[in-house]
Structure formats: structure tokens, C-alpha cells
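Supplementary Methods. Inverse-folding protocol.

Structures were first reduced to a C-alpha cell string of length 248. This string, shown here, constituted the complete conditioning input.
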């Protein structure tokens, strides 16, 4: 049992963006990696979940290794430009003063110590109609499980999501096809929750959570999409904010 990890406030841009219709993507203005007052606590929980849950929160399909290696380099380049980090050839100094060693043989292990975002890699081969989830470090799922989504295409991944119909699925796939290297895009959602749990997995077909009329907590995901320039894989990064509803 862990103490709740909460941010003190919900950023205004998340609330505004969550009110726009799907897929509501816009260009990232500034760093796409988020550092806030819950950064250190989220990193610590991510490390605990990775150590105790293993493949339930981190998986890589065979063949995705080149994209994962490139992802590490892309994130390190973004951290080098981020005012809260210092990157050298072999180490990264984090916002909470930790100095972490870059282990290129373990990309997800390294990234889980550096960024609070969940990181999902999707790729599309020439013989595929949709992007497929090929690797993910997913410590903070909200109502889904990595085991049921890994290796699945976009439409199948979103099958249990009521607003995600064929029309939205086609629009999202066109967006994934068109996103350009060096031009990350983002959107946000906002939902009420009865608990503040960051790690909230649920299986397809299982009972859905009951949301009170006045939920005590609000959860928002800042979802960033960017293309890796060499492999062409697409990163779907998720930064989670949870606040008490009475602070908004």
C-alpha cells in the first residue's frame, strides 16, 4: 500500500485541452517531458513497480530493439535541451539531484529512472494497415493492461473504449502516418476517479469502475506523439497528473 501521489494543482493547459473534441492534437510548445511536484515520487513508484511486476509493466517484442535503442537516444537529446536536466556522455543529473548512469544495453531500465512518462512504441510495417504496439514501459495504466495490448494494432487496442469508433480510428491512423520527426504533438484528457491510484490496470471484459457524480480525484493524461527519425517508429508518451477535485 503506497501513499497517494498527487500534484498540488491541475495545469490550465491540460484542462483546456481536455475540453476539445477528439483527437484534439496540437504542436508541443516547449519540452515534451514533464517535470512537476510529483516527479520524484512517480519515479520511485515506477522503479518499485518495474522491480516487482516485471513484464506486466515493461515489454518489448522481438524486432523492436532498434526502435527502442533509438528512443533512448531521442529522449536523451530531449533531456539535454531540458532546463531541469544535465546530460553528459555517460550520466544524467535529474531534477531531484539523482545522478543516473546511461545504460544503453537497457533502454527502458534507463528511461524509467529518468522520466515520469509511460512510454509506448508503435510501428507499422509495409504489410500492415495500422500501427502496432511493439514495446512499452507502462507503470501507470488507467483501466487497461499491457499484456492485452502488446502486439495489437491501434483499433484493437481501443476496442473497449466507447468513443473510439471507426471514424475516430481512421483519423488517428492518418495522424500516426503523418506525424513528422522533430514535431511532437500532444493532447490531454480529464476524468473523475474514486481513488488516486496511479497503477490502475483492468482487464477487458472485467467490471468497469463506478464514477461518483462528485469524484474525489481528477486524473489527466498529457499524451505526446512523436516520430523517431531513423526507424520511423512512433512514440506515444503519457504523463499522468492526479489531483484532489476540490483543488480545481
Amino acid at each position: 500500500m503506497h501513499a497517494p501521489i498527487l500534484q498540488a494543482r491541475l495545469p490550465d493547459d491540460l484542462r483546456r485541452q481536455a475540453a476539445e473534441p477528439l483527437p484534439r492534437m496540437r504542436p508541443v510548445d516547449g519540452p515534451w517531458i514533464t517535470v512537476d511536484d510529483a516527479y520524484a515520487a512517480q519515479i520511485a513508484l515506477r522503479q518499485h513497480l518495474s522491480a516487482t511486476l516485471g513484464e506486466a509493466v515493461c515489454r518489448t517484442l522481438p524486432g523492436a530493439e532498434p526502435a527502442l535503442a533509438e528512443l533512448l537516444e531521442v529522449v536523451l537529446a530531449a533531456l539535454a535541451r531540458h532546463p531541469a536536466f544535465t546530460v553528459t556522455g555517460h550520466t544524467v543529473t535529474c531534477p531531484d539531484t539523482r545522478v543516473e548512469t546511461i545504460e544503453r544495453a537497457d533502454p527502458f531500465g534507463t528511461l524509467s529512472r529518468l522520466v515520469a512518462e509511460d512510454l509506448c512504441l508503435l510501428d507499422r510495417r509495409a504489410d500492415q494497415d495500422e500501427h502496432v504496439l511493439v514495446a512499452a514501459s507502462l507503470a501507470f495504466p488507467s483501466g487497461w493492461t499491457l499484456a492485452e495490448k502488446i502486439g495489437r494494432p491501434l483499433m484493437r487496442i481501443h476496442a473497449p473504449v466507447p468513443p473510439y469508433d471507426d471514424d475516430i480510428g481512421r483519423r488517428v491512423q492518418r495522424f500516426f502516418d503523418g506525424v513528422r520527426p522533430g514535431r511532437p504533438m500532444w493532447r490531454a484528457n480529464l476524468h473523475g476517479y474514486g481513488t488516486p491510484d496511479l497503477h490502475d490496470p483492468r482487464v477487458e471484459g472485467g467490471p468497469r469502475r463506478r464514477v461518483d457524480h462528485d469524484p474525489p480525484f481528477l486524473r489527466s493524461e498529457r499524451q505526446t506523439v512523436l516520430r523517431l527519425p531513423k526507424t520511423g517508429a512512433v512514440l506515444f508518451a503519457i504523463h499522468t497528473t492526479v489531483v484532489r477535485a476540490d483543488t480545481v
